[in-house]
Amino acid sequence: MNRYPLWKYAILLVALLIGTLYTLPNLFPDAPAVQVSSGKVTIKVDTALVGRVETVLQQAGIKADFVQFDGNSVKARFGDTDTQLKAKDAINKALNPDANEPGYIVALNLLSRSPQWLSSLHANPMYLGLDLRGGVHFLMQVDMKAALTKKAEALTGDARTMLRDKNIRHAGISRDGNTVNIAFRDVEQRTAATDVLKNQLPDVIWTPLDEGSELRLSGTLNPKAQLAVQEAAVKQNITTLHNRVNELGVSEPVIQQQGVDRVVVQLPGVQDSAKAQDIIGRTATLELRMVDDGSEALEALKGNGPVPFGTERFIDRGFGPIIVKRQVVLTGDALIDAQTGFDENHQPSVDLTLDAKGARIFKDLTRENVGKRMAIILFEKGKGEVVTAPVIRGEIPNGRVKISGAMTTQDANDTALLLRAGSLAAPMEIIESRTIGPSLGKENIEKGIASVTWGFAAVAAFMCVYYLLFGVFSSLALGFNLLLLIAALSLMQATLSLPGIAAIALVLGMAIDSNVLINERVREELRGGESPQQAIRLGYERAWATILDSNVTTLIAGVSLLVFGSGPIKGFAVVHCLGILTSMFSSVVFSRGLVNLWYGRQKKLKSVSIGQVWKPEPEATDVAAKA
């Protein structure tokens, strides 16, 4: 009657093993480490850097637990913080001989002491939030005025192009703050321009102005469009910061909008605030300029003369110095995407996609400069480097640009990555900087673990005293639930914070409710005169509907927090929702498996250990009255 088939026990055993395996890494503490990442987008970090770091440490007499390459950076783990600091100084001195122009970022970090065999099984610990692991917190403010100014500059160029395409004459276009001013000599041309601009730039309010003999057309963005520009600027900055930080290998960074014009950046595990500022400040900008291949430029490259007026000298990656004109044709804002591909000769290439404005400019540029070279320059911290300088083979009308030539597939991948690095839509300023030390994080972890442990112990003690052996089964199911929850969070590589620990403690209290419902239902069936085996079966079956209803309604509230919440609220909601799902499985399936294993094979079961079953007193019969 109360027996599980063998396959159900096999499922429970597999779940128990997987839960144990993926929970284990969380039992190992963090160790001090040094992280080496690229200080420039033009410098690539690969496995060869592992050997260089090992050599440096060996020469300095410093022993590391291991040095490994994790895809974006090289990390070395050490036994104590003193060795960590010595290693950082030695590595920084060796890899960055010029302190004014470092090629690598050498930062303090933390790594788990989890054994390598667990890591090989992809069993990794949960990420810990800033409040548990320590790290750096920045509050950055976006310069919204600069974003609107940048948009006004773009509108100025768009208006000039549109009027030229329609052959509408004007006396000059200028920008005054965020207002575009167009001067005209007669009313007819201004009227024609107003019709064109209102039709093609609907987000701009165009107002005719007459000041004496001067005819002007003034254009400003409407309030809705201004708000859209500001929102887009914040979103683009967040995306750019994500790309930069993710490429540096910082585990689970938090980069999110706060308010209208502020962005929160949290880098857990990073202990060096100055280096963290360097990380988030590394946002590159792109410019497209024409190469000067004139005789004066060639003589300047040979060292026989000065750089021609209106040009600059740059370094072309892999090819040496190059002379480029100062006039900027396009910026990185016009670049939508950059991917690797192959040209018509099946050679590696970089495929660029430009926006509508960039496509128009690029069409004119390529038509007028066939056979000449253009340079794509990457600027970082005020210093520029030529990524590539291809020859223009013909007019490119649709904004789909293919760059090919003497490059390997890896070169094409690297170039596409550099071009995708992006630029900030508006300047940002750090208005708040805060460092949380690992000691404070350790204290938070200890207090959090203590709260969960004591809560679990109190619940288990009550259940064992009140429900006896069934209380033991319920406590084991509660432990199984905790094991599954931590394993699920580890598998998802979720970030655990203090609100998440609070959610775990809450889940323990909620999970035991299901077992209380089951145990009381079994008691009720026993009071009703059912046999012990029948009472167990009916107790689990009839309690299931109530358990499902209560958990589904709680899950709806958790999903609402997950969808509409942010930051700590979302972290709480993730643990809360997962805990509800694991508790339904553990309290019903796992606890019944234990009960079936203990009582299921006893055919003549006379009683069960479930505490005192209070049976109602029989109603008294008034015999005398009947007589």
Automatic annotation (TrEMBL):
Primary subcellular site in the record, as a coarse category: membrane
Ranges where the Protein export membrane protein SecD/SecF C-terminal domain occurs: 427-598
Keyword Transmembrane: yes
Annotated SecD export protein N-terminal TM domain residues: 1-108
Pfam families: Sec_GG, SecD-TM1, SecD_1st, SecD_SecF_C, SecDF_P1_head
Highest taxon, organism lineage: Bacteria
Residue intervals passing through the bilayer: 448-469, 476-494, 500-518, 543-565, 571-595
Every Protein translocase subunit SecDF P1 domain range: 234-293
Compartments, as annotated in UniProt: Cell membrane
Key words, A-Z: Cell membrane, Membrane, Protein transport, Translocation, Transmembrane, Transmembrane helix, Transport
Bilayer disposition of the protein: Multi-pass membrane protein
Record domain SecDF P1 head subdomain: where: 320-426
Family: Belongs to the SecD/SecF family. SecD subfamily.
Quaternary state and interactors: Forms a complex with SecF. Part of the essential Sec protein translocation apparatus which comprises SecA, SecYEG and auxiliary proteins SecDF-YajC and YidC.
Physiological role: Part of the Sec protein translocase complex. Interacts with the SecYEG preprotein conducting channel. SecDF uses the proton motive force (PMF) to complete protein translocation after the ATP-dependent function of SecA.
HAMAP family in the cross-refs: SecD_B
Protein name (Swiss-Prot/TrEMBL): Protein translocase subunit SecD
Naturally occurring in which organism (per UniProt): Roseateles saccharophilus
